[in-house]
Structure formats: C-alpha cells, structure tokens
C-alpha cells in the first residue's frame, strides 16, 4: 500500500471520528425528536463508511459485509422511528 493511500485512509478515519463525535453531541442535545432521528441516521451512515474505509485499509471482505448489515439495520430503524414519530405506533 502506498504512503499516499495510507495517509488518506488515516485522515479519513480521523475525520469520520470527528464527525461521529459531533453527531453524538447533536443526538444528545438535539432540540427536537426529529433532530435526534436525523443524527441517528447520520451516525449509522458514518459507521457504515468507517467500516468501508477499514475494509480498504485491511483488504478484507468482512468489513464490506458488516457495512451492508449496518446499512440494512439502519434503514429499518430509520423507517420504524419515522413511523413512530408520525403515528405514535410502529406496528398497526
């Protein structure tokens, strides 16, 4: 792996970590429930991107599978939270 790629991966992991910290701040002190749901959506997106970058770093397919699972569960959770905020119930 080249030095440029290693530097880019390290920088991107650092920026993703900083974005996760800022998102956690919004998740905990968000003024409304909608802000918290959006922060949670962004948090799972950042987690998925982190797994993809780690998969590139370690040249492993396992990280890709984990990223797909995070995306799947994140979408289902977002759908359930949005439905709960709109109707007050998840299952009819």
TrEMBL record:
Signal peptide: none
Topology within the bilayer: Multi-pass membrane protein
Compartments it resides in: Cell membrane
Highest taxon in the source lineage: Bacteria
Record bears the keyword Glycosyltransferase: no
A Pfam family per the record: MrpF_PhaF
Key words, A-Z: Antiport, Cell membrane, Ion transport, Membrane, Transmembrane, Transmembrane helix, Transport
Main location: membrane
Entry's transmembrane regions: 6-29, 41-60, 66-86
Family membership: Belongs to the CPA3 antiporters (TC 2.A.63) subunit F family.
NCBIfam families (alphabetical): PRK06161.1 (NF004812)
Protein name as annotated: K+/H+ antiporter subunit F
Source organism (scientific name): Pseudomonas typographi
